[in-house]
Design a protein that fits this description.
The chain has nine helices and six strands. With about 425 residues, the chain is of the alpha+beta class. A six-stranded antiparallel sheet has the order 1-6-2-3-4-5. Among the domains are: about 50-230, Helix Hairpins; about 310-430, endopeptidase fold (from Nostoc punctiforme), CATH 3.90.1720. α2 (about 35-130) packs antiparallel against α4, α4 crosses α5 (about 230-265) and α7 (about 315-325) packs across α8 (about 340-350). It is elongated, with a radius of gyration of 41 Å.
C-alpha cells in the first residue's frame, strides 16, 4: 500500500510540473497503474536525454564558433606575413638596383680608362716600336728604356681591358640579381594582395558564422527553456553560467599545469644548509627595545618620490598596451585607434624602444624563445596550430599574474584577460 501511494505521489508531482503529458491514467484517478508509473519514468528519462542532447549541440556550436575565429585569425596573420615578405622583397629589389647603378658606373669608369690607354698607346706607337728604338737611339740604354716603356704601355692597356671585362661581368650579375629581386617583389606583392582578399573572405565568413551560430544557439536555448519549464532568460543565464564554469575549470587546469612546470624548473634546495628561519628568531628579542624608542623622535623620512612613467622596456610596452584597452580590433591595423594582435604587440614594444615586425611569426623568430615557466611581464605569448612556430596565428602581451593584453578578433576590442581565456598558448618569447 505504501509503495502504491509513493508511486501515485510521484506521477502526480510529474503531472503537476508538466513533465509528463499524454500518459494514459487508470480508471481510478488516485491510483496510477504500474504502466502509468513506467511511462512517467520513461518520459522523464527521455526529457533528460533531450536536455543533454541540446547541451551537446550547444557545445558543438561553441566549437564551431571557436574554429571560425581561429580560421579568421590565421588568415589575418597570413596577410600580415605576406605583406611583411613583400616589404622585404621590395627592399631587396631596391638594394639590388643600387648595386646595378654602382656596377654600371664602375663599368663606365673602366671603359674610359681602357679608351684612354688605347689612345695613349696609339699616340706613342711611332716612338715605341723596336725598329725606331734601334735607329734613333743614342745607345743601348735608350733602346732598353724605350723597350721597357713599350712593354709597360702594353701591360697597362691589357690590364685596363681585363678590369673593364671584369666590371662588365659584375654589372651583368648585378643586373640579373636585380631582375630576379624585382620579379620576387612583384610576386610577393601579388601574394600580399591575394592574402588580403583571403583575410577579408575569412573575416566575412567568421562574421556570418557568428551570426548563424548565435541564431542556432538562441533556438537551442529556447528549446532548453521549454524542456526545463523556465523562461528563456533563465535558460540563457544557466547556459552562460555552465560555459563560464567550464572556461574557469579549463583555465585553472592550464594554470595548475604551468605552476607545476615552474616548480619543476626551479632547482631543488641544497641539502644540509640551514633554513632561513633560524637566525631571525633570536635577534628581535635582544635589541629592539632601545633603538625604536630613540629614533622616532627625529624628523620623519621624506616620502618617496613619485614613480616616473616608464620610458622604455617592458613596463613602457605594458603601459602603452593598457592605454589601448577598449579600442576596436581590425585585422591588418597597427594603430593609432585600431589594432590587430601583432599590430598591438608591435606598437607596444615600439613604445618600449624595440622594433618588432607587424607579423606574429616574425615577432617570435626575432625574439628569444622561452618556456612558460620563464614568463615575465612584457614577454609575448603565442598561439599556434602545431608545434611548428610557422603555424603561429595569434600573439598577446603578458603582463604578469597569468594575464595578458590582446587584440582578440573582430567584434571584441583590445582587452585584458587571463591568458587561458581561450586555449592555452603554446609559444613564448622575450623581445
Amino acid at each position: 500500500m505504501r509503495a502504491r501511494n509513493m508511486a501515485a505521489t510521484t506521477v502526480l508531482a510529474l503531472l503537476a510540473s508538466g513533465l509528463v503529458a499524454g500518459i494514459a491514467v487508470a480508471d481510478d484517478d488516485t491510483v496510477p497503474s504500474k504502466d502509468d508509473v513506467h511511462d512517467a519514468r520513461t518520459a522523464v528519462r527521455a526529457q533528460l536525454d533531450d536536455v543533454a542532447a541540446v547541451r551537446a549541440r550547444l557545445v558543438v556550436a561553441n566549437q564551431r564558433l571557436q574554429q571560425s575565429a581561429v580560421a579568421a585569425a590565421q588568415a589575418a596573420e597570413a596577410f600580415n606575413g605576406a605583406r611583411w615578405r613583400a616589404d622585404q622583397a621590395r627592399d631587396a629589389a631596391t638594394e639590388a638596383q643600387a648595386g646595378v647603378t654602382a656596377a654600371e658606373a664602375d663599368v663606365e669608369r673602366q671603359r674610359q680608362a681602357y679608351s684612354d690607354a688605347v689612345v695613349s698607346s696609339y699616340e706613342m706607337s711611332p716612338e715605341l716600336t723596336a725598329l725606331a728604338g734601334v735607329l734613333d737611339s743614342d745607345g743601348i740604354d735608350t733602346v732598353l728604356q724605350r723597350t721597357e716603356t713599350m712593354r709597360n704601355a702594353t701591360d697597362a692597356m691589357s690590364g685596363n681591358y681585363d678590369e673593364f671585362r671584369a666590371s662588365a661581368v659584375v654589372a651583368q650579375v648585378a643586373r640579373d640579381r636585380a631582375d630576379r629581386a624585382l620579379d620576387a617583389a612583384k610576386q610577393a606583392e601579388q601574394d600580399a594582395l591575394d592574402a588580403r582578399q583571403e583575410a577579408q573572405r575569412a573575416a566575412d565568413a567568421a562574421a556570418a558564422d557568428a551570426q548563424s551560430i548565435a541564431a542556432e544557439k538562441g533556438a537551442l536555448i529556447a528549446r532548453l527553456a521549454d524542456l526545463q519549464h523556465v523562461s528563456v532568460d533563465l535558460a540563457r543565464r544557466r547556459q552562460s553560467g555552465l560555459e563560464a564554469r567550464a572556461a574557469r575549470a579549463a583555465a585553472a587546469a592550464a594554470a595548475a599545469e604551468q605552476a607545476q612546470e615552474q616548480e619543476q624548473a626551479q632547482p631543488p634546495a641544497p641539502t644540509g644548509t640551514p633554513t632561513p628561519t633560524q637566525e631571525p628568531t633570536q635577534q628581535p628579542t635582544e635589541q629592539p627595545t632601545e633603538q625604536p624608542s630613540e629614533q622616532p623622535s627625529e624628523a620623519p623620512a621624506p616620502p618617496p618620490a613619485a614613480t616616473p612613467a616608464p620610458k622604455s622596456g617592458a613596463q613602457a610596452a605594458i603601459a602603452f598596451a593598457r592605454a589601448q584597452i577598449g579600442e576596436p580590433y581590425q585585422w591588418g591595423a597597427a594603430g593609432p585607434d585600431e589594432w590587430d594582435c601583432s599590430g598591438l604587440t608591435a606598437g607596444a614594444w615600439g613604445a618600449g624602444g624595440t622594433y618588432l615586425p607587424h607579423y606574429s611569426v616574425a615577432q617570435y623568430e626575432q625574439s628569444t624563445p622561452i618556456s612558460a615557466s620563464q614568463l615575465q611581464p612584457g614577454d609575448l605569448v603565442f598561439w599556434g596550430s602545431s608545434s611548428d612556430p610557422g603555424s603561429i596565428y595569434h600573439v598577446a602581451l603578458y603582463i604578469g599574474g597569468g594575464r595578458i593584453i590582446q587584440a582578440p578578433r573582430t567584434g571584441r576590442p583590445v582587452e585584458e584577460v587571463s591568458m587561458y581565456y581561450w586555449t592555452a598558448p603554446n609559444f613564448f618569447a622575450r623581445p
